[in-house]
Amino acid sequence: MSKSTGKGGSGTRKADDKQRIAAMGDLHVKETGTASFKDLFTEISQAADILVLTGDLTDLGKPKEAELLAADLRACTIPVVAVLGNHDYECGHVEEVTAIFKDAGVHLLEGQAVEINGVGFAGVKGFAGGFGRYMLGSFGEPAIKAMVAESVEETMRLENALRQVRSERAMVVLHYAPIPDTVVGEPQEIYAFLGSSRLAETIDRFPVSAVVHGHAHRGTYEGRTPGGAPVYNVASHIEKPTGRPYALLDL
Description:
Elements: E1 2-4, E2 20-24, H1 38-47, E3 50-54, H2 63-72, E4 80-83, H3 94-103, E5 107-108, E6 112-116, E7 119-123, H4 142-164, E8 169-173, H5 197-203, E9 210-213, E10 222-224, E11 230-233, E12 247-250
Parallel strand pairs: 1-6, 2-3, 3-4, 4-5, 7-8, 8-9, 9-11
Antiparallel strand pairs: 2-12, 6-7, 10-11
């Protein structure tokens, strides 16, 4: 697992101090550039030690959209950890989008882990598949089997990332939800497309301090895995205790 102190902004805090994490997802930056996040990132830099972005950073996965967000992120003076979301894959330029964010200094996790200020972050996009007894099984048409295989592959990547974490404090960063509790508020008919219990099954095999995800814009802020790990839906549209588009979590 790589270690980083990232940008400034954490002041004189030591790695073993409590870290305040700002977490937010689903920014959906458009290439029109009509919305800027500079002021928000400046605000977050004053409120938190680390910023975590839970995917759908762009609206259509266009490099221009990624460039606009990367420019806004210059206003962020604290380390930034992120995963991609389904929207970031839409235009088929995911490699270019990934390179833009990494060049901007973002710790973009795709099945890896990074330690910052004593907190280990394990991140992966995740995938759909459903929850509990309604989870999709690998049976029938090749298209269904391919979908389940993708879900299993993302889960294995998350497991590999968690195995890299050596710090006592660990945060899992996802785009898709690992539990149904935090998608409550969305139509039940689309629950299967919002996440998968396979992610929670993996999380519960490791000592995880917190899990953050996005994707479910009309979901619920807080829940827990069957094993008790706290899960937070931090999509920017979700009402949070901060009253702001981002959540603040202390680890």
